[in-house]
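Handout, page 2. Input:
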Amino acid sequence: MARVRVLILGGSWFLGRTIAEQAVSRGDEVTTFRRGRSGSDVDGVTTVRGDRTNFDDLTRLAEAGAWDLVVDTSSFVPRETLQLARVLEPVAARYLLISTVSVYEGWPVEPLTEASAVLECPSDAGPDYGYDGDPGPSTYGFSKSGCERAVLEVFGDDRATILRPGVILGPMEYVGRLEWWLRRMQRGGRVLAPGRPERSIQPVDVRDVAKFALSPELTGIFNVTAPGRETMGDLLHACHTVTGSTAALEWVTDEEWLAAQGVRQWTELPLWRTYKGAWKVDSQHARDAGFSARPVRETVADTWTWLTTGGAAIDHERASELGIPPEREQAILGLWDATQLDHCGAG
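Output:
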């Protein structure tokens, strides 16, 4: 069987690195294109140093081709993606772009499928196109939509693949959502658990996304989320178990009350969001094409093993946005206790 030649744009962080490692382990001939300012090169890859915004660097990269598959994990500005795709088109059989569910007009308010409307963004837009709303849309979503359009314009439907993941967790996660919950559980005490434990969630493991991205001859547009059979309770109880915690989970089930206390959704309490569409993204199309999501308890356990055996996320600004201060957490729990006593008294 001939070796598959894979070019990964990025390849030193989280998903990009996991894709590179899996491609090397299955015997592919792997090249990464990166500036080399952060992260580290994966053993067994050929690295081309360069900047995706520099046309000369892109020309030099194309001369190192051809490739059976280009995997782009680092596209954020449509006009840069458009230029990159045009340069690589003659030397690439397929182009796979890692996008996001944030491209949808209805995210995170409405349930979504691949047929849902996406944000309008031209393929040659700059980095400031669009606007930030609350709860959506976002300039990030607009930009990713423009990047999708750039790839599809250059490679066409028959040679382009667009993956739209929701939340990706697992070893090497740089945002730190799962790490925050693990560390919080390790600290012990009364833990503010947001919402109801039976709330369905759809995070996916980075290794499962990587495996799907490397699927042979995969083309089309795919949401990439877990099927929604697991819950916030499953996630937090798994964190409790793997850390050997003595913490007490205190479920604040009145989400409107919790939001009224000014708790920032998605950041102050990671992965908590009240909007009905946040965890209602249909990924049946991906499952039909071979995507499979492992149980969240495996992701939690393997992330904790990584963290406790020397693993450390890269220093990233998004990680600094996460978490509720301990004093504030306990103050809110005290207020919640008072509301429960009031309800008992009223009864």
